[in-house]
Amino acid sequence: MWSSLDQRERIFWVQRVENYPIWVVVGMDLDEVLAGWRQRAGITIGIFIAIVLLGAWGVRHYLKRIRLAQLLQHRLKELDQARTQAQTGEAQLRTLINSIQDLIIVFDQNNQMTYMHALDEGMLLKGKDSLLGKHYNEVMPPGLSKRFDTVFEQVRQHRQAVTLEYQLRVPRGEHFFQAVASPLVHPDGRFSGTLLVARDITEAKQSEAELNIAAAAFQAHLGIIIADAEGKILKANPMFTQITGYSEAEVIGRDAKMFNSNRHDPGFYRRLWRSVKQQGRWEGEVWSQRKSGDIFPEWVVISSIRNADQQLTHYVATVVDISERKAAEQEIHQLAFYDSVTGLANRRLFMDRLGAALKEARRHRSYGALLLIDIDHFKQVNDVFGHSIGDRLLQGVARLLHQQLRESDTLARVGGDEFAILIQSLDADAAKAAQLAELIAHKLMVAIRRTSSLIEHSVSVTASIGITLLDYSTNEQNEYLQQADMALFQAKARGRDTLCFFDPDMQATLLASTRLERDLRQAQALNQWQLYYQPQVEVNGKTTGVEALLRWQHPERGLVSPGDFIPLLESTGLIIEVGAWVLERACYQLASWAQHDRFCHLTMSVNISPLQFHDAEFIPRITAIFERTQAPLDRLKLEVTESLFVDDRDRARDKMLFLKALGVRLSLDDFGTGYSSLAYLAQLPLDQLKIDQSFVRQVLTSSANAAIVESTIALAKSLNLEVIAEGVETQAQQAWLFAHGCHAYQGYLFGRPVTIDALEAELDVS
């Protein structure tokens, strides 16, 4: 305890002295008491600790050796057990795999087959040995390979199994398979390949198809046929036989096209099947053919049947005969919208179509025409010969008028002896539309005159026609009818058997055109045609040839401008006959020059119209002209325009090659103003390019026209073609052309078109 005297820790001994009331307390300093003992105890403890540590190390070493021996013995035992279990497991796995009916294929990271199991190798495309090591793209059809590409990529990306169904033709035939593609992954997470387990589900698919067919047929309270994915008929129910007259045995294996009535164009069926493929069904009215040959309307619903993989397997079509319903509808429609005597549209239907035509004209900004036709003195026919003859006359007029019109035109009977005709989309130009409308009206008047032969009485049948153009203005139907009616009134006031336009100014123009056309048809018979010749010269001014140009010497009008009558020749088709006359006269002149030393070197250029060139008799007609005239064809030059090659280029080229074989030279006139395609230019057997005068006149004032002319000259040279410029009127124009490589010219600078006598006189002087 601690001493209270000196505050040191001491060991105290307390003892009572016998027989005395005294206690003796002895205190010894603790350090002094324990000094020796602590030293001995420290040494002893140190020795003891060393002995203990040494012994523990020995024991630990001994125990460790025992544990290692035991562990080695245990590991050897486990290895032996594992080897035994592995051998047993492998045998069991081999037995298990060999009992699996499914097809098992292992693909590596490159989708090459490394392992394959198939109890029946007939389910493989080839033998196992020939398949191992190959990519599936090397052995599978392209379509299936693309599907496998998608599936295998999904397995690689998402590391999840993917199920798919596919159809494959194997040595045993066409089979369906359901496959599960699973990822093969290393323990460290690396993708090592794909495991494909495929099962033959052909029988299940057939059962599924049968169930689908049965389900569709179960609803069949109507006529029904079932076809495969190729459209071949597989089944037909009794109601279908009752509707069409074909038994099931007569239609099985045949294509559904056997019922086509030819009343629908190919586009109708393309739209039908497009709807079936895109939407899975189509419903609508179809005209079909019975076994007896009768055409009848039916309401058809076509549905497609697909498997779980959305592959088309079958078509199911239900059929309803709607002949009676259509007949009733037709009768109602006929009474509501058609005239009972002629069968034509009545006023109500005509007004509906007129309204639609006006909307179309405004949408496309094109002109149409409305014609009102009145049979002259029809009331007298009814009064004298009776209404039955009058009805026959109306029916005959309706039939003949209908024959002269297009399918898109509307012919209607809008009154007792009055017919209306709606003609849509004539032309975007009002003047041209009016000309076309007038031509149509003349054709109709000629047709009406032929109606006289349809009745058994000597009656002259004529008609008056009023015409108004339908434009894209805001006029309503009634306004156009009023205009046509006013024009009809004018036609009657002028003595009937004529036509009038609502527009007085246009009427005057058309009357002038009509008179010009009438005179034009008489020009050849009255010997009013003349040929003028314009010189073609070289750089030095020497005349190398001429161009034959048609002129019309009218007894009252004088010399008519070609710009007035050439388009009329084209529109009326007279250009074919007149063009042949021009060519023959030019050839005779060329043959005549061949006999004179002064003119035998001259070439003769003759324009050929596209209408003339495309005529079926062009080659026989022109060959006959050459034989009659015996003209030197190597100095004959036929000028054609670019529009000749827009349509039917190959036929035009064949005709040109025929002419080239005869020795005729060919020149492309007005180059640059029309089609101007280098593709046809390089393919056609041309000898010369003729630069149009519209470019030549502006070479000094327009950089664009100068560039076109310069390019044309360079193009002609690159194609080894001659080049000549027409419309040269000044020395400056010639100088510019000469500087840019054009050395042949035609124009007022060198001579105007003149008669043959004047031309030969000029050549003699020069």
What does it look like?
- Strands 18-19-21-22-23-24-25-26 form an 8-stranded mixed barrel, surrounded by 4 helices. The chain has a 5-stranded antiparallel beta sheet with strand order 4-3-7-6-5, sandwiched between helices. Strands 9-8-12-11-10 form a 5-stranded antiparallel beta sheet, sandwiched between helices.
- Helix 23 links the parallel strand 25 and strand 26.
- The chain has 766 residues and is an alpha+beta fold.
- It is elongated and about 195 Å long.
- The longest helix has 70 residues.
Brief sketch in words of this structure:
The chain is α+β, with helices and mostly antiparallel strands. It is 46% helix and 25% strand. The protein is elongated and about 195 Å long.
| Class by alpha and beta content | alpha+beta
As a percent range, the share of strand residues is 15-25%
Give the overall pLDDT as a whole number.
85
Total beta strand runs: 26
Oligomer class: single chain
Largest sheet: 8 strands, mixed, barrel
Q: What does the overall shape look like? A: elongated
Distance between the termini: 167 Å
Specify the helix fraction band.
40-55%
Radius of gyration: 54 Å
Number of alpha- plus pi-helical segments: 24
* Biggest sheet, spatial arrangement of strands: 18-19-21-22-23-24-25-26
